[in-house]
Amino acid sequence: MKLVDLKCPSCGGKLIKQNDTFVCEYCGTPYTMDYDPEDVEHERLKAMQNARPNPVNDKKQKASFRLLIAIVVIIIAFCIIVAGVHLGVFIVFQKEISHMGSTISNDDSEYDDKNETKEPDYNVVAQDLTESMGDFIASGKIAEMNITECANWDHESAVDYYSKTDAVYKDAYLVTGIPNVKPRQSNRLVVIYEVTWHNDDLGDKTCYDAVYFEGLQKNPNGGVISDYNADTIFRSEAAWGWGMAYSFEDYNQCYRENVTSLGGTVAKIE
């Protein structure tokens, strides 16, 4: 294929291409080109022409892309605003609930006064026990009378067996601030009884014994909270009675081993 200068056959003017038609730039006469289908160069030029970008289509595509980006940005901004509004409402709601709770706890003092505190209050004083002492004494006597027999070896003859016939209330002491123990063991009510042991041959033997109540809690309504379940106290070898050593012949010995040996502050219950 060779390049030729296209001129108008009528006036010799230069032909210019407009779409698929050639027009003379002077006389305006239109012409069409009859291409040879086998002209490879023509086909190549035609393909290159078709491959050229269309400025109009490019502008439309760019405009559509910018519109899509704008829509996405607006949606994201809307979601952020909605989430922020919900978060703000939630925070305000939580603050209102907290304020209401604190108001109730501050204003409802009458309710608080009539209910126990969450944490047990073991700071019991002697006056707290006054009204309940009858129950403590009765419960302690039951525990005392549960031990009905004992044996005593006099080191000369044989073992002498005794039976308990009575336990009479003698004294009571509140021990508080007992060191090196768990909180519920930090106080103890010790009740001392005068007990009578009887042997048919040897007669009666008077001794002193004690039971205790621990874990006493102060009741906000007055008095104490207790299960009134008495425990018997382990006795040393100084106690009278063989084997388990059931009671003390000397009152002071009973007091020392069952009250002052605890190491706390002692108050006698009057």
Radius of gyration: 55 Å
Q: What are the secondary-structure elements, in order, as H or E?
A: EEEHHHHEEEEEEEHE
Helix proportion? 25-40%
Structural class, by secondary structure, is: alpha+beta
Total helical elements: 5
Model regions low in confidence, pLDDT < 50 over at least 5 residues: 107-111
Percentage of residues in strands:
15-25%
Nearest-integer average pLDDT: 81
| Count of individual beta strands | 11
Shape assignment = rod-shaped
Query: Between the first and last Cα atoms, what is the distance in angstroms?
Result: 136 Å
* Biggest sheet overview: 6 strands, antiparallel
Write the layout of secondary structure elements.
Elements: E1 15-18, E2 21-24, E3 30-31, H1 40-51, H2 55-107, H3 109-113, H4 133-145, E4 149-153, E5 159-176, E6 188-199, E7 203-214, E8 217-218, E9 224-225, E10 231-232, H5 251-258, E11 265-268
Antiparallel strand pairs: 1-2, 2-3, 4-5, 5-6, 5-11, 6-7, 7-10, 8-9
Summarize the structure.
The chain contains five helices and eleven strands; from the N terminus they run E-E-E-H-H-H-H-E-E-E-E-E-E-E-H-E.
Description:
The chain is α+β, with helices and mostly antiparallel strands. It is built from five helices and eleven strands. Strands 4, 5, 6, 7, 10 and 11 form a six-stranded antiparallel β-sheet that branches. Strands 1-2-3 form a three-stranded antiparallel β-sheet, with no helix packed on it. A two-stranded antiparallel ribbon has the order 8-9. Strand 4 (149-153) and strand 5 (159-176) form a beta hairpin. Residues 107-111 have low confidence and may be disordered.
